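Subject: Serine hydrolase structure
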Amino acid sequence: MKNITGLLLLTLLFLACKNEPKKDADTLSTPSPKYETYNYAGFTKEEIYGFHKRIFEGGNWTEYGDHERYYYLNFSQIQKHSRILRSDTPKILEETPRDDVKNFITSTDLKKGGGLSLNDYVQQVEVNGLIIIHKGKIVFEGYPRMFPTDLHINMVITQVFVSTSIAILEDRGLIDTSKPIDYYFDALKNSGWEGVPVLDILAMSSGIDRVPLETYEVSFDPIMDLATAKSAKPSGTEFQWSNADAMVLTLLVEKISGLTFRDFVEQEIWRKIGSEYSALLGINKNGSSISYADGMSTTLRDLARFGLAFTPSGRKSANPIISDAHLSKIRNVNKNLKETSRNFKETIYSSYQWGAVFDDGDFYKGAHGGQGLYISPSKDLVIAFFGTANVDRERSQLSVISRQLSKSGLFDLE
């Protein structure tokens, strides 16, 4: 009986709480938004109760479908976190919807939804939200399975916030990415990390074997735990997915800047991009930042504002966040990391934590469940999206569609 009473009180508490973004005062208001919500109504009270009942009884969110989507949209209710405060002067995004983008026909060879218009695709396939910005203006924006003000988990897209932080310090002459990581951390000498250049870690090619996350997340000396990792192959020779790379880069940002990762991102990135809402950042049991897995939670527009920082429209200020040198280094790829992507069906490279850098200079970062950020500096184009895989573990192919959109001619600059 006590457990049932506790469960009811817990559920009532969650239902009474407001979402974190609504706590921001004086947020940017849009009198007549031109985005589409497709009559999305949110979760029912019964669905919310059912989700929290599973968590209360020891269940987890990794079940895909609506359970996972609830987690993605309500991270602050479930996981320990800190807030990254928004900008005092939010960047206004002009809305200029384009029918030719809305009616763009997806490729017929997609696993699901092929041949549909983009507008129909996002409604019928596992998409929570999609925004497309061209020349600094929103040309398409839709929210079929979330609210525009929801903070949605970014997952490993957060890793490019880590690499951007490294690049900012690199621009200031505080980090030399050609130096080995043990130059900055004595504890990594005589370990698998010894001699591994920071640049190879940025390219997700450290050669380090997988590190047990559970150990790192509770350790009060995480760099010592990382020092126990073994080298599986020479660095710079092969792309490999390893959260350990983002972990050690996060610690490097903190050591060189003297700030926590949260504070660095807030001070040097989040407030400077003109973010409209404060973001959330997952926190481990030991107080360290979860920059390598669950990561940050943001609105879709604010993620797109970050993407804009890499485009001509977002780099007009005298001191842009993303320097010419940073852009050049992203695209100056290590040719050893070349691979033929099964999704894109063309050659891609990994660089500065971006998972796909294309021969034409576009780059993309995807994440578990269907998150993505696609940037084409040459076309002044940003495509950002959120999604959740269904119970059959099927997710949208907006990554492929983003590439098709970039190459379609719809966004070629005059």
